[in-house]
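=== Per-residue structure ===
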Amino acid sequence: MSEKGHRISYEILNMKPDEPKREIEVLATQEELTHLIKQGYLIKEDLFSGTGLEELRSALDRLEAKEKDDVGVNTMGNFGGLFLRYLMDKDETFLKFLQFQPLLSIARAMLGPQVQMGMSARISYPGPENQETIWHQHLRYIPKPLPPWFIRPHCLDVLLYLDDVTDANGPLCVVPGSHERIQEEPPAEYFGEMQGSIVLRPKAGTAVLQHANLWHRAMPTTSEGSKRRLLILSYYPTWLKRGLYGVQPADGLTKPLEKQDNEEILELLGKTGYM
């Protein structure tokens, strides 16, 4: 284990006394996890570079060419750009992320050993209007006031940038610590300045890990900018329902994996790990 990481040993209390503990080698420092807990985000630079980065770009470009005309680029709403769903079902290149330990180990450190994941992408283009997002958060179903036994939903979103982010092609804005403001929400349909916000301009190959309820927005991609390609990985507990976006291919690449007798894979695909 690297000096930059640490180990967590989980015991799952499921009335199966013979089930072995789950040993997680977390590829992050305690300081990094503390920052993620308190601030709601963590930046991991140079997660991909060189050939590995080019492989991801090429795979997303192939999918873009195949689906762009059918899916369509949204330039009329508050979430502009091209959104592509179920990436791991559509290209072998993305299937590597199913057990990608630099991210999965952090998700398990934050959420526990039993997690599932999904993967999508957003592409923004130079020029067209409305290719930005409003201030938003992803887990919006929280009642006010909080019921005594309310179970707060958690999700770790990973924004993996495949292109350098500049002021011209749409920086990421976040409000540190806002994921803990669970009895508040961002102003409706709001694109403007937010008190306490910071602007992030990740380099290509950098991942921004954030709690799904961190207040955030993407700024516009201008005519002076360039195309911005972004992979989005979402890790959440196995018992949390998946989002309703997109349609999973009936013959997707993950389908054969569902037939394997591999508890870890089945959990990651959301097929087990709940009652």
Q: What stands out?
A: DSSP finds five helices and eleven strands in the chain.
